[in-house]
Design goal:
8-stranded mixed sheet, homodimer, 18 helices, 9-stranded mixed sheet, 27% helix, 574 residues, elongated, alpha/beta
Chain lengths: 574, 574
């Protein structure tokens, strides 16, 4: 017997019927007070008088489709995929399009394989973009380069569903064969983009490659131009980049644009999700900003489903997988608080509790590099070969850095940190292949007065980065990070004052989201104890290695300023 | 060198630049006075100051994307695919989604193969739906049955891009394994539907199969319900079924619905296209009906491209194939007259002239059945085995027929046509496998006073159908059709008064569209000479065999009324 068709007709009891739900229909933009019948994990029917083997009375409360995050880096939360799914499922998220380029820098193909494996059977479906820019530039050293053949391989293996954000927009615009080869190797799939500020003919060239979405619009004008060129606009509302309020007026001006726009999170922290939420928070913001609730809902359900060609989801209609939630209120714009959540027709959450258990150990990544080649105290010393040095200037609240040229402070012919002018020493050590390659530089603006802070989260190659006031503290941090197998460290002299292990590729923890948020807070407090005055010091530190953002950055290969030719910059400025 | 990227950047001359075009942007719903640069058949860029090796000044006239017909039966025009493309390309059509179920009934898999082969290299891209209902019911006899294995095979061979209209909605709703097998054999492709009047739980069951569009909505209420269940609505404006004005209010009420609606032609004649147009006519109707011109344009460009997953077309933006037209006016709603047409960046038409030549002979279908088993005069005689007979009652202007029960007119114990009561004899002869199987019945309402009219166009199995006032004329028609290898015939006694050969499967001609329109008019005039009073008599005749529409029809298996159980109906009513 065809159970699905029979349940749809009402000839047999459905597996589950949600009665009296005020179904938010994303196709019509209207509510429909109705029963929803589920069979074999699929929605069988909407209508009156369905009966189920399990019956649930929604008492007229609003029902919404499972929400979809169109672009997220799970690694940024430091949570493993199962834990990320646990926290977001409770918020009504059913699908996440994840770009695993952090773990792919840290562990190569085996990192992607881990993410894929660890994401099976979760209360949230995770689909992966093939990480298109590993390394982010030739001036970074990941575990291994993932070239066009690697991209093709990811799709052949079934790990990836779309092409992850193509950040190397200069190469795309230039028509570079290797980068276009990666795009073409992905085949006829959604090709997601990342082209901040790209406009006019350069934008034409970028789009002519087939890349057809972008999540980097930070002005209305930019979003309008990209929309007009056929791009799907992913409006980002991340922890550090809240663009939603800026871009929403475009959608409010013409509701039809909602069919080509979606809302994405990009980078979040565990704390952010716990305190503010996931896609539910984006919905609350949009409603507060005066967006029609159904237009808002379309942009976190049907529109991302359409863009990502997920024909089995996006709305509550027959034949789609039974992913939906009930809200506390009778309509969407009544607080938008998600109460009960169903995934594939099974209830997975209630009032924030997720009915879901998992074991971590079996899913640990196979690749574990132990760093043994750590520079000696002598090697870290910088001989004063000039009077002025280039220094990374941190700008609080921005991912942009400046290139400062400062007078070197010296002692016995050695350049030393100048804490009185808030200048620390910064060291990056290659950690993936234990080559021992390291670079030394200086950074101003972190507030470090003594000791050192270190991390194995260091975009995008994620080598060890340590900033400190003295070499001994720096060496203690490097050794500490090596001992942890990756993580965060706060040291003073030869004492490890605080540490937090990130055993999954040096990026993620096996702990619960709540514990991770607490650990991170504890580490930040420890850093404050060294005088660190900047907010989110570990995040700021992690971005000092990202070579594709101007101006001065540092990697294991040395100082890099991507705006200069050649980009590798010497330590001494004279 | 990457020529496309270089042309997009403006660093090399493009192959073609259309200057000063008032580009209708279907993403924004706005005009953009701009240059459009083309390279390698693909749009490289939109913007100012592009230069091309070929340059064309649009002088500020409106430019629109190539238009897409989301559902058409090319066979209905009696034109071959190249000729269909010639007439529609001139109207600004660039893409047609064709359901070849007529030729697939007549010639089986080789008919589909012919359509596919004959559609390569045309100025219109033709994508085929896998004919999902051959035969339309077990009570029709096509050349061969195309079962779920045949469907799978069509996709493997690359002939088909989507599933053709799933007309057997009762079987889908019933959960029939063979029909669901066909749907699943198509795989993850657009699954087009045909479910007239299906509603409520039956509609839920139909949609739960994955079928996700419908072109049979004839009321606003029906369209709204299907849209609300996640179906794409194909609003039909065909020669016999003009539904556009009825359904348009839905789209006018909410522009966002345009993202889930498109306009299709279904069945047109050569004359219709020549006199009224193709998708350009639909545009003029929509504009006249007060639809926002950009909303109208989206429904014949971007929306069908999205539904059919044709990511390479739908708008004038970089990376899409260079399919576009210039109108005579500066804006869409200024008459909407298509002037110059480009396909893949090459101009293919100007002022209705298509720059396109083709040869037919090499493309002829491989399967040619010669009918030799024609009933004798004696075999055609109907012995009066009862007093009352069942008679097909034709309703002018409707595809529906009635079941009439009339007193039999007899002569020497033989039932004969009763022309005084407008009742003709009707014979259907199996023609594909020359089995000699035939059925005899009676039909009221055609107006035949003498002679006979016959056709090899006889939905959906397309056997020979002849209606006449006497057996001799009927036999002359059957023999005539056999001699033609299919076509249309008007006979009187043993004279063939007029004939029109349809050598391509008995459905289509190699003639030009203009000639076909004239031939059909000539045949209709000849039929009028026999007293035939009904409009479009050959079309009416062709639908008398379509067993899936109520009430009484006739096939080579006998009378059929699909609403009865069993559906095969005897000749005598008592």
């Amino acid at each position: 017997m065809n159970r699905l068709a029979a349940a749809a007709r009402g000839d047999i009891p459905a597996d589950l019927v949600i009665h009296n739900a005020n179904v938010a229909n994303v196709y019509t933009g209207q509510y429909e007070l109705s029963d929803v019948a589920v069979c074999s994990g699929v929605i069988a029917g909407i209508g009156k008088d369905y009966t189920g083997r399990v019956n649930f009375d929604a008492e007229g409360r609003a029902m919404i489709p499972g929400m979809i995050d169109g672009h997220a880096h799970i690694e940024s939360t430091m949570m493993s995929p199962p834990e990320f799914a646990r926290l977001t499922a409770a918020r009504g998220t059913s699908t996440v399009m994840a770009d695993p380029h952090e773990i792919s820098n840290a562990l190569g193909m085996s990192g992607l394989q881990y993410m894929f494996t660890a994401s099976q059977g979760l209360p949230v479906d995770v689909f992966f973009g093939a990480p298109s820019c590993v390394p982010a530039s030739p001036f970074e050293t990941p575990y291994e380069e993932l070239d066009m053949n690697a991209i093709a391989s990811m799709f052949r293996k079934g790990y990836t569903q779309h092409l992850g954000e193509m950040m190397n927009f200069p190469a795309v615009i230039a028509g570079d064969a290797e980068v276009w080869g990666k795009i073409l190797a992905a085949g006829n799939v959604p090709l997601t983009g990342h082209a901040p500020g790209v406009s006019g003919k350069a934008l034409n060239a970028y789009i002519s490659s087939g890349v057809n979405s972008d999540h980097e619009c930070t002005t209305l004008e930019e979003a309008r131009e990209k929309l007009s060129r056929g791009m799907y606009i992913m409006i980002r509302e991340g922890a550090s980049f809240p663009d939603l309020k800026t871009i929403l007026p475009m959608v409010k001006a013409n509701p039809l644009y909602a069919a080509r726009c979606m809302v994405v999170s990009d980078d979040l922290t565990a704390r952010y999700i716990l305190e503010r939420g996931h896609m539910d928070e984006k919905m609350r913001i949009m409603i507060r900003e005066g967006v029609d609730p159904f237009i808002a809902l379309r942009m976190v359900t049907l529109s991302p489903a359409e863009y990502f060609r997920l024909y089995d989801r996006g709305g509550i209609v027959p034949g789609k997988i039974a992913d939906f939630s009930l809200l506390e209120g009778r309509v969407i714009d009544e607080g938008f608080k998600v109460k009960e959540v169903w995934k594939n027709g099974l209830q997975v959450a209630n009032d924030g509790d997720v009915f879901y258990r998992y074991e971590h150990e079996e899913l640990a990544p196979v690749t574990k590099v132990r760093v043994k080649n750590i520079p000696t105290s002598e090697q870290l010393k910088v001989k004063a070969e000039g009077r002025r040095i280039n220094v990374i200037g941190v700008t609080e609240g921005s991912v942009i850095t400046k290139t400062l040229q400062l007078e070197a402070k010296t002692q016995n012919g050695i350049v030393i940190p100048d804490t009185e002018r808030d200048t620390a020493k910064i060291v990056v050590l290659e950690r993936h292949n234990d080559t021992g390659r390291f670079a030394v530089g200086f950074v101003q603006g972190l507030g470090i007065k003594r000791g050192a802070v270190g991390s194995s989260v260091a975009h995008d190659a994620h080598n060890f980065v340590v900033a400190g006031a003295d070499d001994e503290s720096i060496l203690t941090a490097l050794k500490g990070l090596a001992g942890l197998g990756g993580g965060l460290a706060v040291t003073e002299g030869n004492n490890m004052r605080a540490s937090f292990a990130l055993p999954i590729g040096g990026l993620m923890s096996y702990l619960k989201g709540e514990e991770i948020a607490a650990e991170l807070a504890r580490m930040e407090t420890a850093a404050e104890g060294l005088g660190v005055s900047i907010a989110h010091p570990f995040m700021v530190l992690s971005f000092l290695c990202l070579s594709v953002i101007p101006e001065l950055r540092i990697t294991d290969q040395g100082y890099v300023d991507i705006t200069k030719n050649p980009p590798l910059i010497p330590l001494f400025a004279d």
